Amino acid sequence: MKVRLAARKGFTLIEVVVSMLLSAVMISAVFSVALSSKQTSARSDRRLAAAQAAQSMMQRLKNYVTSDPASIAILGPTPRPGAASWYLNNPPSVVDSLGDVYALQPGTHIITGTATDVIPTALAAYGGKVTYVVAAAPNSQLTITVSASWNEP
To answer: With a threshold of 0.85, does the pTM exceed it?
Structure first.
């Protein structure tokens, strides 16, 4: 009887393999949760940066609102001759898809560039852009819709 008990000390190969398998499943579950949490956090940071970029653009566009409708057509002292005054286009740091036009000209303005006060670094790395649409309302007021977008990895 003593010989049999001495031979049974320790673990069998199957027991070791099963315990390693269970350990691997648990470890992979923990790493999966950690990776998912990191990706969600990064996505949330980009959403926050996009919301801040849109808000910043709205604040910037408020500076262009004027009560003098004649001032829209004024060509004034700008870095480039012939460019409309009160415009956003300043390549390469800020690029308006409509070019050197009045910032509140009706249409869809797609703003890209490298200026971090317009396109946050968190979005620029993913092809970020701020788009705003200026539409004339029936009562001759302008409505502006601002959004920010990027290519989610």
So the answer is: no
Each residue's pLDDT tens digit, 95-119: 888 888 888 888 999 998 888 888 8
Report helix, strand or coil for 145: strand
For the chain, helix, strand, coil in percent to 5 are 40, 15, 40
Residues in the chain: 153
Q: Return the CA Rg of the chain.
A: 30
Secondary structure class of 138 (helix, strand, coil): coil
Going through 42-141 in order, the beta strands assigned E by DSSP cover 95-96, 107-112, 129-136
State whether residue 147 is helix, strand or coil. strand
Tell me if 99 sits within 8 A of 84, measured CB to CB.
Answer: no
CA atoms within 13 A on the CB side of 119: 23
